[in-house]
Amino acid sequence: MNKLLLKLAMLPSGVYKNMGADIPQLEALLQVKLMQDDRKPLAFGRARRQKKEQKNSIWLNAFLSLVTGFVYMMPLVSMKDLVFSLWAYYSLFLFMLSFLLITDFSNVLIDTRDKTVLLPRPINDQTLFLSRVLHIFIYLFRILVPMSLPGWVYLSIAYGWPAGLFFVVPLLLMVFMALFAVNGFYLLLLKVAKPERFKEVINYFQIGVSILLFASYYLLPQVMKSAAITGMTQEHYSWIRYFPSYWLASCWTWIFPGTGMAGSTWLSILAIVFPAFCIYATVKWLAPQFARNLGGLDAVEVHAAKVKRQRREGFYKKLAYLVNKNDEARAGFMLAWLQTSRSRSFKMKVYPSFAYVPIYFVYLLFNSRSETNVLQVMVDRKFHLLLIYMSSFTMIQALNYVSISDQYKASWIYRALPVETPGRIMGGAFKAMWLKFYLPFFVAISIFILAIWGVPAISDLLLGLMNVTLFSLILMLMGSRTLPFSTVEQLSNSAGRTLRVFGAFAIIGLFGLGHYLAIKFWMLKPLFMILSGIALWLVWDSYSKSNWNAVKRAEDEL
């Protein structure tokens, strides 16, 4: 499979050569990168099982991509206007590609781990940059092939063999458009920003864009609810001509004339010109000095110590001593507090969740609105309960990623120390996540809820806070009990853990149902508070007393 994808990526080798890349070096770099991807660190005696699990993981990812492709195919099936349905189809794909490039694949472009091997070699900037971009392209292609298969088959059946043959052309244009536009922006930012500040700037940029894409995905369809889905046409939304996804859809007017709006032929030319311009501008103008800028990313910027900084550090220490009774718990608390402030990967995974919850709440609110006032609908339908239990998503995200680190092998220090009960360290980390991330977020939504539902909602907030905390602890017990920053990221996606997470969500659903019944029958609310408090104490006692046999390491899951 890798050999086939490598040949596909190297087909335009003449174009790469004209841009200044060294073709033999480029092909050699790609071969080594693909070879390294297939080699995972194996535990003793577990090589055969790891190889089988890796193969199963590839097929599972392909199946999930295929299922996603059936979802993305819905505009093609439900809309009568061909070009408009293709615009919606390509918009979904561009959203997915941009999201992947911004969140998951940007680290491939700016990876500095191999700089000691490559930078001293006679490799020019264009070759180094193209090797990384084409590496990302190969991964995207693995995702896109099964994902685009349902739409490909449907268009071939509905519009004949010309549509089936032509389908690949705009798809490849779309990949190059997203790939070089996003990475070109990264290179431009690398030129403008100081190398030592680049990763921090790009991290917050990724967070902002991921929030924007998430909001667009859920809220933009609300703008288009004035017409029936099947009756939607491009004439109703002439503004879509300014979207690159419409330029791609306009390409279909080449084989089906008259299906686009006025000027579609000229817009279809942009589908070729824009990715070509992105490729040329990125490789010719932005890629030079890429290696030098890449070498400066690991530079350490030293600043004089500031009193203000020391005072801020003193706050978390005081908090650690205030809420923890033993030294192990205090150490876990301070470690989790500090590392979550420094880890860019943690910020990228967790910070957007604070925006996802209100965005999705607004989406559900407008999906269920009636002819009456929106605020009245919120009050009548007890939407504050939905918001309270949706807030658990932020706590779950924080807890899921507090155990993950790229430097997970450094966790040997836990077992080297004379720690009898590792559950105390995990308990301290749990308190840090609860106080640092969940409690401030819960206070913010509580202010919103009290402003609309008034003082009677206080009891609901208290019961919801107890239930969400209990749910989070149950989730940690049902999952693998891991110490802070002691596991590798790809291991967090195992099928067993996913099933346990779904089981935990069933529990939070039961909590929410019980809370809703408590509103109908007021005498149940104090009873549920007492039961929730007792359960919280029992689960916390079990979690904080976890022994070494219950704690898992990264090597145990390989």
From TrEMBL:
Keywords: Membrane, Transmembrane, Transmembrane helix. The chain crosses the membrane at residues 58-75, 87-106, 127-145, 165-189, 201-220, 350-366, 386-404, 434-455, 461-478, 499-518, 524-543. This is Uncharacterized protein. It comes from Taibaiella soli. It comes from the Bacteria.
